[in-house]
Amino acid sequence: MRLPAMTDAEFSDFIDAQVPDNPTILKYLITTRNKLREHQRIAVSYSGGSDSDIVIDLIELVKPPDCGKICYIFIDTGLEWDATKKHVKDTADEYGVDIETRKAYRPIPSACKEYGIPFISKDCSDKINRLQTHGFQFDSAMPDIIPGCKGGSTWWRGERGARFSITNMSYLKEYMMSNPPSFVISSKCCEYSKKKTAALFDNEFRPDLKIDGQRQAEGGVRASTYSSCFTPAGTHSVAKYRPLFFWNDATKQEYKQWRNIRYSDCYEVWGFQRTGCLGCPCSSRAEEDLRIAEQYEPLKVRAAYAVFGQSYEYRRGYLQFKEARKKKKGNEKEI
Question: What pTM does this model have?
Answer without folding.
Answer: 0.90
